[in-house]
Specification:
Elements lengths: L1 E5 L9 H12 L6 H14 L1 H6 L4 H15 L8 H13 L6 H12 L3 E7 L3 H10 L11 E3 L10 H11 L6 E5 L2 H10 L3 E5 L13 E3 L2 H12 L1
Parallel strand pairs: 1-2, 1-4, 2-3, 4-5, 5-6
Helix pairs in contact: 1-5, 2-4, 4-5, 6-10
Bound molecules: magnesium ion (MG).
Magnesium ion binds next to loops.
Length: 232
C-alpha cells in the first residue's frame, strides 16, 4: 500500500501565473520579471502564514499587503488600495482554476488503484482552502476525510505533527508515504524529516538543497510523466 499526499497550490494547479496576471490587470503595466515578482510575493507570504491560518487576518487583507510589499520592492507604480484590488482580481482568476486534462487522467488511474490511497495536505485559511477543493473538483479523486487543511489544525507546514497526523489518517507508515509539492521548505523538507518519500515540483528552478527528494521535476509535463512512471 502506498499513500500519495498532494499539496494544492502550485502543485495541482499553477497559481503563480494568476498572481502576476492579477497585478498586471490592476496596475495596467507589464511586470518585467515574473520569476522575481513571484519569489518576492512568496517570501512575503511566509512572514504571516500563521496569522492567516489562525483566522486572525483574512486572505484578502493579507494578499493585499503582500501585493503592496511586492509592488514597493519592485518599484512598480501603485497606490495603497491597489494591493487589495489585486487580491480581488486574483480571487476572481482563481475562481476559474482547473486541473489539467493530463493530470486528471493520471489522477483517475491512481484513484482506481486499490493499492493506493490519495490525500491532500494544504496550508492556508480553512474556508479559502476548502473552496479550492470544491472549485478544482477534487472530490472526484480525494475522500474529504483524507484532506488536511492546516487552518483546521494548530500546526503550520512543515511541522512534523502534520505529517504524523496524515500517517494516522491513512493508517500508513512513513516509508509507505509520498509527499508531492512545489515548496521545498514547506512540503519536501518536512517529508524528508518525517521519513517519507517525496516528489518536488520545482517550478521556480531553485538550486538543489542538501537533502534531496526522491524525484525532482521542473514543470507540469515532467510532473505528470513522473507521477505516471512512479505510481501507475
Ligand atoms: Mg504549494
Amino acid at each position: 500500500m502506498r499513500g500519495i499526499v498532494f499539496d494544492i497550490d502550485d502543485t495541482l494547479y499553477c497559481r503563480q501565473d494568476m498572481l502576476v496576471q492579477a497585478a498586471e490587470t490592476v496596475l495596467g503595466v507589464k511586470v518585467p520579471d515574473w520569476p522575481l515578482f513571484i519569489s518576492i510575493f512568496y517570501e512575503k507570504s511566509d512572514i504571516n502564514m500563521a496569522q492567516l491560518e489562525s483566522g486572525e487576518v483574512s486572505t484578502r487583507d493579507i494578499n493585499g499587503w503582500r501585493y503592496n510589499e511586492t509592488f514597493r520592492l519592485l518599484s512598480l507604480p501603485y497606490k495603497p488600495e491597489d494591493g487589495g484590488r489585486a487580491a480581488d482580481a486574483y480571487l476572481e482568476l482563481q475562481s476559474h482554476m482547473f486541473i489539467s486534462d493530463e493530470l486528471a487522467s493520471v489522477l483517475d488511474k491512481l484513484a482506481q488503484d486499490p493499492e493506493i490511497k490519495l490525500a491532500i495536505l494544504t496550508a492556508g485559511e480553512s474556508r479559502h482552502q476548502w473552496n479550492k477543493v470544491d472549485m478544482l473538483g477534487l472530490d472526484r479523486w480525494f475522500d474529504r476525510s483524507s484532506v488536511i487543511v492546516t487552518g483546521d489544525t494548530p500546526y503550520t507546514k512543515p511541522d512534523v505533527e502534520l505529517f504524523s497526523m496524515m500517517e494516522s489518517r491513512l493508517g500508513l507508515s512513513p516509508s509507505e508515504l509520498w509527499m508531492i509539492g512545489d515548496n521545498y521548505d514547506k512540503d519536501i523538507a518536512g517529508a524528508i524529516t518525517s521519513g517519507w518519500h517525496s516528489l518536488w515540483l520545482n517550478r521556480r528552478g531553485i538550486p538543489d538543497p542538501d537533502a534531496l527528494p526522491d524525484i525532482t521535476v521542473l514543470n507540469d509535463d515532467e510532473f505528470v510523466s513522473a507521477l505516471a512512471k512512479e505510481f501507475t
